[in-house]
């Protein structure tokens, strides 16, 4: 038993946490700039910045590669074919799960919406898919586990999926699901699945996804880590406590209000979340911040506006925001389980 | 042989089209590669993720940026 624990600690600290990297960078900074600099606030910030950027970049590239390989088995055309066969809440659940597994680029959201609708998939199910897609990401899950541990990572994924399922179901039940632009419903659609991919095809795909995604995301990582470093070393704990801390009953609302208009890739939010967590911000508030940044984005709303009528767009937006706030308060209430 | 490169949204789709043009040249295909950018046309073909590639009416790739070599292989496969 102790051996298992030791092995898990090793994996957690050195492989996922890359503690050896932390020590290495500290040593380099000390050798180059002297101990005084290394211990100083600027030194610590530089240390944190370099370490976090390298750590996240490396983990990200490895994760995206592996996960893209897995996702090559779940192209959206296949998801469309599978979802078309199910009804009711089962379809929503399946939609949410497939949203996690299917590779998704926000510029695909329109063709996807049109394709799913013409295949007879109800809007509610499509929305379950669209809510979970940006929100729950396999790569992010593993990164979350490495930084926050299993309990919080699982909490994030499960809440995201439940939000997607309930959100999609509510959209359908409220009748708003019908408010789709006419051109979406009427029109040609074919069943097309691309030819079976060889292993080499999948490796080429995984590599391309790794490089493309990394390039897209690197800016968000740099900004996210910079903000994380600021929070870590420069912003007084008291301020953070006052605005986002557990003693502030509005912290979840504030976090959601800050997160919603911002869009960043989920990988960029993780270093910020990490720093806030060490400053004592509640789990629920952090979840609310991460979810509001990723679930809703101006680009995807602009695109959805072209295919759905305002009433449906507003319903979708409203349900997701309210859902995130509820999740935030719920997890703050059970915060003691995670700390 | 009718080759269509699907996708007009981003860098990947443009690259896919350019790779298709080069591959078609290498295989001696006379007909120019068509670059389909209209979203509704692409959906009508059944493709939901860009970039895509269609050879003689059959979808051979969707959601993937293909290398020139991959496209050459696909062209050769469909030439028989």
Reconstruct the topology from this structure.
The complex is a heterodimer of chains A (339) and B (80).
Chain A: H1 2-16, H2 19-33, H3 35-39, H4 41-71, H5 76-83, H6 88-101, H7 109-118, H8 123-135, H9 138-148, H10 150-173, H11 182-185, H12 199-233, H13 237-244, H14 251-259, H15 266-278, H16 283-295, H17 298-307, H18 310-333
Helix pairs in contact in A: 2-4, 4-9, 4-12, 6-8, 6-10, 7-17, 8-10, 9-10, 9-15, 10-18, 12-15, 14-16, 15-16, 16-18
Chain B: E1 3-6, H1 11-26, E2 34-36, H2 39-44, E3 52-55, E4 58-62, H3 68-79
Parallel strand pairs in B: 1-2
Antiparallel strand pairs in B: 1-3, 3-4
Q: What overall form of chain B do the CA principal axes indicate? A: globular
The main β sheet of chain B shows up as: 4 strands, mixed
- The residue ranges of chain B in which pLDDT falls below 50 over 5 or more consecutive positions are none
- As a percent range, the share of strand residues of chain B is 15-25%
From N to C, what is the helix and strand string of chain B?
Answer: EHEHEEH
CATH architecture of chain B: 3-Layer(aba) Sandwich
**Regions with little confidence, pLDDT below 50 for 5+ residues of chain A:** none
Kindly name the structural category of chain B: alpha+beta
The geometry of chain A reads as globular
Strand portion of chain A: under 5%
Q: Give the N-to-C terminal Cα separation of chain A.
A: 24 Å
Give the proportion of residues in helices of chain A: over 70%
Number of helices of chain A: 18
């Amino acid at each position: 038993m102790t051996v298992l624990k030791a092995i898990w600690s090793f994996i957690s600290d050195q492989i996922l946490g890359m503690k050896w990297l932390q020590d290495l960078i500290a040593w380099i900074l000390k050798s180059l700039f002297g101990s005084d600099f290394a211990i100083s606030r600027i030194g610590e910030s530089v240390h944190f910045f370099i370490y976090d950027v390298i750590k996240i970049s490396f983990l990200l590239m490895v994760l995206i590669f592996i996960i893209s390989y897995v996702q090559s088995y779940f192209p959206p055309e296949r998801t469309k074919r599978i979802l078309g066969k199910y009804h009711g809440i089962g379809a929503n659940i399946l939609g949410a799960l497939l949203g996690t597994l299917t590779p998704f680029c926000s510029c695909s959201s329109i063709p996807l919406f049109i394709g799913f609708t013409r295949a007879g998939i109800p809007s509610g199910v499509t929305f379950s898919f669209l809510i979970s897609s940006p929100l729950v990401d396999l790569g992010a899950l593993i990164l979350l586990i490495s930084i926050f541990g299993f309990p919080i990572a699982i909490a994030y994924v499960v809440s995201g999926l439940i939000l997607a399922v309930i959100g999609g179901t509510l959209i359908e039940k409220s009748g708003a699901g019908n408010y789709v632009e006419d051109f979406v419903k009427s029109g040609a659609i074919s069943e097309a699945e691309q030819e079976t991919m060889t292993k080499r095809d999948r490796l080429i795909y995984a590599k391309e996804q790794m490089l493309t995604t990394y390039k897209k995301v690197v800016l968000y990582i740099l900004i996210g880590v910079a903000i994380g470093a600021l929070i870590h070393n420069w912003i007084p704990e008291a301020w953070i406590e006052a605005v986002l801390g557990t003693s502030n009953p509005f912290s979840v609302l504030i976090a959601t209000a800050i997160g919603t208009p911002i869009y960043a890739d989920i990988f960029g939010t993780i270093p910020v979340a990490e720093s806030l967590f060490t400053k004592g911000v509640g789990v629920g508030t952090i979840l609310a911040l991460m979810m509001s940044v990723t679930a809703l984005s101006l680009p995807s709303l602009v695109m959805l506006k072209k295919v759905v009528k305002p009433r449906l767009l507003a319903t979708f937006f409203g349900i997701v925001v309210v859902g995130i706030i509820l999740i935030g308060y719920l997890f703050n209430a059970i915060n003691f389980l995670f700390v | 042989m009718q080759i269509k490169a699907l996708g007009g949204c981003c860098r990947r789709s443009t690259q896919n089209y350019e790779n298709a043009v080069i591959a078609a040249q290498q295989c001696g295909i006379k007909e120019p590669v068509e670059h389909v950018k209209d979203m509704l046309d692409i959906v009508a073909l059944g493709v939901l993720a860009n970039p895509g590639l269609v050879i003689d009416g059959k979808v051979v790739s969707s959601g993937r940026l293909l290398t020139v070599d991959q496209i050459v292989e696909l062209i050769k496969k469909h030439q028989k």
